[in-house]
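Sorry to interrupt, but I need a hand with the structure work. Go ahead and set the record down below:
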Amino acid sequence: MKLDGLTVLDLSLFLPGPAATQHMADHGARVIKVENPRAPEPTRSAEAFPWQQGGETVMFRNTQRGKESIALDLKTEAGKAALLALAREVDVVVEAFRPGVAKRLGIDYDTLSATNPGLIYCSISAFGQTGPWREKPAHDTATVAAAGILDLTRSPEGDAGPAIIGVPIADMLSSYLALSGILMALLRRQTTGQGDFVDISMFESVLAASPNILGPVFGGDQAPERLKERTHGGNAMLNVYETADNHYIALGGGEHKFVEALFSGLGRPEFIEAVTGPAGEGHWAAIEYLRSAFRAHSRAEWENWFEGRDICWSPVVTLKEAWQSEQVWERGMRFQDVEGHDHIGSAIKFSNEPAQIDTQLPEIGANTAKIIADLDLTEADREAILGHL
C-alpha cells in the first residue's frame, strides 16, 4: 500500500486528527494512538455518542480502526519519557491541543525535531498557532460561523435564520488539509531529509473553501445579497424546490444545456435566456414558476420525469437513503465486516495498491506493553506506565 513503512503518532482526539490518521492507516501506515488512561478518546463513550454497533460507538469504529493504542499520562515523567522515545522513531506526529499546550508539556515540534530532524509534526487547532484568536476555544460550528458561512446557510425561500450545516465541514476540511500537508512534507523530505511543522487551522480550512462565493467581498467590498448570488438561492438552476408530498428536489447545474433541457421539457422556453444569464433578479420569475411547478407533483413523479433527461438534479434524500443506495455499496463507501458491523470505506481509490482496511479496534492501551518494550526506557518508567493501566 502507498504508506507501507510509515509510522504515525496520533495525539489527537474527536474528529479532525483521527480522521486524517484513519486515511493513513487505511493505506498502510502504522498509526499509534496515544491515550490518557484517565481520560481516553472521548468517542469511545456511549454516553456522548450513543449510537453503537457491536459494543463500540459508530463514531469510534469509523475513526480509529486499524490503529494501535498506547496509554500514556503525559503529565507524568514516565509518560513523557515514553512519548519522547517514541517521537524519536516515528515519521509523523499529529496533535490537536490548544496552542501552547504541547510546548508546556515539552512535546512541541521544536523539542521533538531536535532529536528527529526528519519529523513531520502537524498541529490542528481552531484558529491556528498564531494570530489574535489563537487561544480562543472553538469546535466546528463556531469556526464556520466565524468564517461567514453560517450567515449564508439559510433557506432560499423565506427569511429563516442561519442553519447548522449537516456535516462538520470545518472538522473534515481541516482533516483533509492536514493529510495533504503531511503528505507534501513527506514528499519534500525525500529530497531534503528535513521534516517540517504543519499548522492547520479549522477556521482557515473553511476560508480556503470559499473562492466561489467571494466575488461580492473581494470585487465589491460588500457582504453577499444571498438571493442575488448563484450558489445561495439566486440561481434557478442551483436551488431547492418542495414537491407536492413535502419532499424536495435539488437542481445543481446551471450550464446552458441543462437550462435548455429543463425549461424546454417543461414547455416554458421563455425562461431559458434569463436563466442562462447572471444570478439575481433575472432568475426570480423562473424560480417562482419552478416553485409552483414542483409543488404540483410528488417526488416520485418528478423522479420519473427527470429520468433520462440531461439535467443536474437529485431528490433530497435522508441520510439513511443515501447510505443504502446502490452507488454507495457498489463503490465500497459502505461495507460490513465479518461480524456484520458497518464501516465507511475509503474515498481515496487507487488502481494500484488500493486501501486494505483493518477493521480491528484497539482497546485502551492494548498495545502499551509491546510498544514500550522496544523503547529506550528505564525499568522504573516501564513499571510506572504499566501501573496506570
Notes: The chain has a mean pLDDT of 96. DSSP finds 17 helices and 13 strands in the chain. The radius of gyration is 25 Å. The domain at 238-311 is CATH 3.30.1540.10 (formyl-coa transferase, domain 3).
